[in-house]
Amino acid sequence: MQTRYILASLRKHRLATFLIALQISLACAVLCNAFFLVVQRVHAMQIESGVAEASLATIKLSGFAPEQAVDVNARVVEALRGVAGIEAVSVVNMVPFGESVSSAGVRLDQERKRFGGVIDFYIGDSKAIETFGLRLVSGRFPLADEYAPIGKTVPSSPPVLITQSLAAHFWPGQLPLGRQFWAMGTAFRVVGVVAHLTVAAPGGGQSADADWAVFVPAIAGANLAGRYILRGRTSDIARISDNAKAAVVKAAPDAVLDTEQSNTLLELRESYFNSSYVMVALLMGVSVALLGTTALGIIGLASFWVTQRRKQIGIRRALGATTGDILRYFQIENFIIVSFGILIGMLLAYALNFGLMRFYELPRLPIWYLAIGAATLWILGQLAVLAPALRASAIPPMLAIKAV
Hints:
This protein is an alpha+beta fold. The chain has helices at about 1-10, 15-45, 70-80, 130, 165-170, 235-250, 265-270, 275-310, 310-320, 325-360, 365-395, 395-400; strands spanning about 55-60, 85-90, 105, 115-125, 135-140, 150, 160-165, 180-185, 185-195, 215-220, 225-230, 255. It has 2 domains: about 1-45 and about 275-400, no CATH class; about 55-270, no CATH class.
């Protein structure tokens, strides 16, 4: 019965109702997409790299000519092995959360008609697998005689390790061992599957999945030099990293140490996701501010209507309406306004998500985010209107009538 009178009342205040509903709809659209972005970013920050991050550090050198590569490698590796606490040293082309230097689109057939996606290619010497700490799930690791020199980009027809995620994508429901794929003018043969190996720049490259990476065995040389991965005890890795940098500067004064990329892997992870931390904090701040503004708008409108309807409230109280009836009236009224705003907000949320999908390659907004956004705004609306509604329900009938 109250709903009919509430709708009639709202029709008399179309502009105020529309403005608060519009504010709620904007809050709904932004809140749903902001929450979605936060969850996506937090999920990305918690990614499992597949390597022993806590025990690893990396050194990056540049500024030397290709013909110096073999000599630089020899001097640097020897110097690193002399640093106290280093258990293993290897030469690689890149590391997780560092610079992505080798990625390419792959084909799953020799005719190159079936596109498999863009993946990262980790290239490392015979110590790299042990140093990284890759966990084998099936198959085997490359044999000692399968490490070959790099041609232009990779060794010729090398055996490779792929991740479980990549195997499931390439050959769903089939055994990947022994299968081939083609990229960069060569054929790659799968000899083993590892649990995880994240791309160098998760969430920031062209790979559709963070685990779309392979490991290619190679011999260090002109095309595999300047990036070194070293392993030590977790408790000592920070000290080891500092000592390693000092040793490398002394051993290779003709090369340039990249201080930004030469750190422990935990520091590289933190640095890599630093912008994500800022983005999450910013989105959370915007969401809280938007919810606070929306709540203040609801409170202001409800308070205005309480003052404006003092006579109406007094008459209803005199005719026998209880405090619960008055309270319920404002709560139902608020629920209708918020619901109208949410309905428009859901359409705006999908429109905003479509723009993000088109320009920033984000996935589609799942429908359950809309349910969370709607529930949040319904609860917020009921809490915001509660104080003005309680004040209205406490107005004595005679005082309300005399005051108007």
